[in-house]
Structures are given as C-alpha cells and as structure tokens.
Amino acid sequence: MEVNKNLSTISQSSQLALRLVKLKEIEQRVANIAAGSIIFSPALITKDGVPIIRRGTINIIQGRQGSHKSRLAELLCSVLLCPEGKTIESLGFEKVENQKVTVAYVDTERNQAEEFPSAIQSVISKVGFSDPKQIPDFRFTSLKNSERVNRLDDLKVFINDIRGESSYPLFVLLDVVTDCMLNFNDLTETMKLLDYIGKLCETFDATFLLVIHENPGSDKARGHLGSESVNKSATVMHIGFEKGSNGEYTELLQLKFIKQRHAKRFAPIPLIFSQDTMSLEIADPALVKSIADQRRSKASVNDIAATLGKYLKPKLEQKELLAVLNSDFNCSANTMKTRLEEVERNFMQINNEHGVACNLKIISTNGKTTVYELSEIGMVDLLQ
C-alpha cells in the first residue's frame, strides 16, 4: 500500500512539473511577442471601418423569442461568404478584403425538412448562389436529432472534420448555444463548453458567434451559460422590437451593441423585418422618428433605464442627470424622479458604457445633493 502511495505521489509530481514547463513556455512566448511590435490580425467583420467581430474571439447575438436573432446571424454568414467585388445588402457590415474564411453553421432548433434548409437558402441566396455545394467554404449541420448528452462531442467531431479540410480562419455559428448542453444553469457544463470554445479560438484560428435567448421578461442572456459567455465575449449584440407609447411592441427593431471590447460602442441601428425580402433592412427614418416622438412624450421607465448607461459614468448629481434626461424625454422633473425611483426599486438591469450589467443606486442624504450612480451587479445576482 505504501509503495502504491509513493508511486502515486511521484506521478502527481511529474504531472505538475510538466504543467509548469508548459506554463513557462507560454510565459516566454508571450514575453517575446510583448517585447516587439504587435501586429493585430485583421477583423473578420467591420462596420464603418471599426472592428465588430475580430478573429479568435467569442461573440453573441441575444434577444427574445421571435426577435430575428437568426436572421441577423445568417446575414453575417452571408457577409463572410460574399465573393470579392460583389455588393450585398448587409446593414453596413463588411468583410475585410482579401481574406478567405470558412463558415460553419450549426443549428439546434429547426427541423431539417423545411426550416433549416430555408435558413441555408437565405444565407447563400444573398450572395448570389442557389446551391450550397457551389460554396466550398460553407459547412453546415444540425444537432437537433443528437442526444443532448452527445451534442458537445458531435460538435467537436464536426469542427475537427472541417479543420482537417480547411486552413482558412474558421467562423462558427452556434444557433442556439444553450442547446449544446444538458443544463444551461450548470456551472460544470458551462465551463466545459466555454473552455472548449476558448481553446478552439486559441489553437484552431476559430471565431464563434453564439445565438442565445434572453430570460423571459429580462434583458439577461439565458442561464449561467448566458452570464459567463457575455463575460468572455468580445462583442455582444442585442436585437429586439421597440415598444410604442401604449406599451405594445411596434414593427421597429433596434440592434444594440451592449458590449464591444475592441472599439467604442456603436449607436443602436434601427431595423425592420421585410416580409417581401424576408430579411432585415434599415428602418425608414420617418418610422423611427414617429415612434421616438410617441415614447418621448410618455417617458416610460424602460426607456429611461435604457438611456442611463449613456449618462452615468458611473454617477451624476440629480440636477445634471435631470437636465440631460430632459433633452431625451418631455416630462416634469418630479415625474422623472418618480421614474428613476422605480428603476432603482425594481432592480432594472442597465448596461454601463463597458457593457457591464448594473443597477441604479440613488444616494440621498439630508443636507446633501442627491446622486444617481450605477453599481455593478454581482454574479450571484445575475443568476437569480
């Protein structure tokens, strides 16, 4: 028994020594790069010359059910597959020139008789093809019929097959990512999936776009997987329908960039879904103005909360905040104060200028000026 124990101790020591060697190799490699001029790889997708999706990163599209998350993801696939010299309606997104990319579209939700083939058809028709086999750098499959316990392994097998045939940068769309695991609130499963994705980004020249639903009645990406993937993502986009003055959803969609690690966040892009073209299009400015005027006259709690991340960096005195909010909303100071108190009382999530989830905190002390401040939400709060 003592001999076996000693052998086990020696084996563990050897393993630790080997791991230390690898860590020191990484240290030396990073030191060598940091000592020179670092040349960043060109982004895969840009907008107005600003990187939106960089190589080797995790990126997210989140939104509620029916908010056309998949339509947006399909559009980005089309942008990457578009032949050089061809122009498509792309909402202003552009592929970096002279860069070949292999696109892998992995679906988990739609049926394979009509819905998923229709999605593939949508991707290729935008770039002028009628047969997906005509595009050698486009691969796609569905995990819907795979047992959930096997889905991660099936994903690995498919990606390994692609990487064995292509040396181009790999862009992987997972629609939806929560279906790649048994329980999206399980910490172990979450880390296993994200560690695998992160390793591919590091060693396979892979870039991931994860489509994820939001929790019902919330702007939070679903489950522990949603919270952790947002933390690890370079770009997080939210798409959803805007409400009118009556509180009902309108036909206007907003594409919001709630996190951009590598660039200043873009202003929201107003969109509509065209039934004629079955695609997303830039909304008519007249429609945008009409809905904005309606909402401005009402100054709803949701609208006010949505603007606070723009002004609180991280705090402002009451007089200053009311002044800037008055430029956005047409209501009295007392009404605005009441709305802000409701935002605080309901713990409404507000994304700050860095895309971090926060709550509003009102600091009011007798004899002192009231201050409005954004306070970051802890991980435990996010998971509740």
What would your notes on this structure say?
The strands form three sheets. A nine-stranded mixed β-sheet has the order 6-5-7-8-3-9-10-11-12, with helices on both faces. Strands 13-16-15-14 form a four-stranded antiparallel β-sheet. It is α/β, with parallel strands linked by helices and 384 residues long. Helix content is 40%, strand content 23%. Helix 5 (187-203) runs parallel beside helix 6.
Which descriptors would you attach to this protein?
Rossmann fold, disordered C terminus, 16 strands, Arc Repressor Mutant, subunit A, alpha/beta
Biggest sheet statistics? 9 strands, mixed
Distance between the termini: 48 Å
Strand content bin: 15-25%
Helical run tally: 11
Give the rounded overall mean pLDDT: 89
Low-pLDDT segments: 380-384
Question: Percent helix among the residues?
Answer: 25-40%
Q: Name the CATH superfamily classification of the largest domain.
A: P-loop containing nucleotide triphosphate hydrolases
Listing every helix as H and every strand as E from the N terminus to the C terminus, the arrangement reads HEEEHEEHEHEHEHEEEEHHEHHEEEH
What is the fold's blueprint, element by element?
Layout (H helix, E strand, L loop, with lengths): L1 H33 L10 E3 L2 E4 L4 E6 L5 H13 L11 E3 L6 E6 L7 H12 L11 E5 L8 H15 L4 E6 L11 H17 L2 E8 L9 H10 L2 E9 L5 E12 L8 E6 L4 E4 L2 H14 L2 H11 L3 E3 H9 L6 H13 L4 E2 L5 E7 L7 E6 L2 H5 L1
Parallel strand pairs: 3-8, 3-9, 5-6, 5-7, 7-8
Antiparallel strand pairs: 1-2, 1-4, 9-10, 10-11, 11-12, 13-16, 14-15, 15-16
Helix pairs in contact: 2-3, 5-6, 8-10
